Amino acid sequence: MASSDIERGGAKNGRYNRENFDVETPDNEWTSWLIPLFVVANVAVFVVVMYINNCPKDNPNLNEACVAKFLGRLSFQPLHDNPLFGPSSATLEKLGALDWQKVVHQHQGWRLVSCIWLHAGVIHLLANMLSLVFIGIRLEQQFGFVRVGILYLLSGFGGSILSCLFIQKSISVGASGALFGLLGAMLSELLTNWTIYSNKAAALFTLIVIVVINLAVGILPHVDNFAHIGGFLTGLLLGFVLLIRPQIGWMESRYLPAGSHVHSKYKSYQYVLWVVSVVLLIAGFTVGLVMLFRGENGNDHCSWCHYLSCVPTSKWHCDN
């Protein structure tokens, strides 16, 4: 998205001087450190999980089948057990995977957050961390670590809530909900700051294609598309709240002579989107958490929603 069309200016003899004053634009970048820290944290957690998993010791009869045995206790589960080169599902469940039974009936709500930092295997981890680097660093450079950190964590939390409401007979792990939240925030940031960008139609089309393709992958078996959808919707709404930019001309108007017309900081539609998004976020989190801890099953309220996460074909079946 181009930033060259954003005005720079100030008042000089009652006229704009575009070279004298800096304004809040994508050119004023922050140094990205939180996203790299998140990447390091995810990798470190995976190493700890593999250390605890200890395939050779806990599965002595499968010692010959453990993958990459030269890694010792860090070696991976047999491929028929985990084709993603990672730990067993029992280890993931023990260390904080999202499990409806434990969240609701054993009051382990912390799993709604802990599951974001766990990954099913090396392939899963690499795919998510590469996506996080490409998407997250640019967002953090533009908007700072506070807003991007809130986006990441709340989107992951929102994805966990929706996942737990609809997937109640298997565990779920991964940062995908948080990543989809960043994608959703990129889309809402483009929409709410529409007037300051050039080539916006192309950027919008590209973003929509990326989102649709990634959500389409979620209809494959063993992919938690509800976490993707929940994270995306959370990030989309948070983007309207956290990533709003002042309209063109507002910064310059502060340097105009007294009595001159002063632009409002934000456009009317930006205020409307902000208010609507805050209301929907509060309502969504409240309703979702109440339904979850009452033990309700989202599929009972939406008979077709299970197709959002898995569509049966002649090549595979979708069980519970």
From TrEMBL:
<keyword id="KW-0378">Hydrolase</keyword>
<feature type="transmembrane region" description="Helical">
    <location>
        <begin position="201"/>
        <end position="220"/>
    </location>
</feature>
<feature type="domain" description="Peptidase S54 rhomboid">
    <location>
        <begin position="107"/>
        <end position="243"/>
    </location>
</feature>
<dbReference type="GO" id="GO:0005794">
    <property type="term" value="C:Golgi apparatus"/>
</dbReference>
<keyword id="KW-0720">Serine protease</keyword>
<comment type="function">
    <text>Serine protease involved in intramembrane proteolysis.</text>
</comment>
<protein>
    <recommendedName>
        <fullName>RHOMBOID-like protein</fullName>
        <ecNumber>3.4.21.105</ecNumber>
    </recommendedName>
</protein>
<feature type="transmembrane region" description="Helical">
    <location>
        <begin position="271"/>
        <end position="293"/>
    </location>
</feature>
<dbReference type="InterPro" id="IPR002610">
    <property type="entry name" value="Peptidase_S54_rhomboid-like"/>
</dbReference>
<dbReference type="InterPro" id="IPR022764">
    <property type="entry name" value="Peptidase_S54_rhomboid_dom"/>
</dbReference>
<feature type="transmembrane region" description="Helical">
    <location>
        <begin position="33"/>
        <end position="52"/>
    </location>
</feature>
<keyword id="KW-0472">Membrane</keyword>
<comment type="similarity">
    <text>Belongs to the peptidase S54 family.</text>
</comment>
<dbReference type="GO" id="GO:0006508">
    <property type="term" value="P:proteolysis"/>
</dbReference>
<dbReference type="InterPro" id="IPR035952">
    <property type="entry name" value="Rhomboid-like_sf"/>
</dbReference>
<feature type="transmembrane region" description="Helical">
    <location>
        <begin position="226"/>
        <end position="244"/>
    </location>
</feature>
<feature type="transmembrane region" description="Helical">
    <location>
        <begin position="174"/>
        <end position="194"/>
    </location>
</feature>
<keyword id="KW-0812">Transmembrane</keyword>
<feature type="transmembrane region" description="Helical">
    <location>
        <begin position="149"/>
        <end position="168"/>
    </location>
</feature>
<keyword id="KW-0645">Protease</keyword>
<dbReference type="GO" id="GO:0016020">
    <property type="term" value="C:membrane"/>
</dbReference>
<keyword id="KW-1133">Transmembrane helix</keyword>
<dbReference type="Pfam" id="PF01694">
    <property type="entry name" value="Rhomboid"/>
</dbReference>
<dbReference type="GO" id="GO:0004252">
    <property type="term" value="F:serine-type endopeptidase activity"/>
</dbReference>
<feature type="transmembrane region" description="Helical">
    <location>
        <begin position="116"/>
        <end position="137"/>
    </location>
</feature>
